Amino acid sequence: MQINLINALSVIALCALTSFMSHMGMAVFHDGIRPVIPEYLEKRMKRSEIASVAFGLSVGFIASVGIGNALATNLMNPWLLFLATDIIGIASPKKWLAPILGGLYGLLCFTGISAINAVLTGLPIDLIGGMGQVGTYVVTGFAIFPIIAIFMQFGAKNGLISALVVLVARILGPKFSTISADAWTMMTGVLILIGLCIVKDLSNKNKEAEDDSNNIFSERVGRIKKNLPFLMAAGALIAVICNLHIFAGSTVSMFDLSTAYASGNTDLVRTAATNELMRGLSFIPLIATTAITTGVYGVAGFTFVYVAGYLSPNPIIALLLGAGIIFAEVMLLGFVGKFLGGFPSIRDASDNIRSSMNQVVEFALLIGSIGACASMGTATTIGAAGGFFIGGTIYLINEATGRKVMRMAIGPIAAIACGIILNLLYLVQLIGLAG
Question: Which of 114, 339, 348, 373 satisfies CB 3.0 to 4.6 Å to 418 for a cystine?
Answer without folding.
Answer: 373
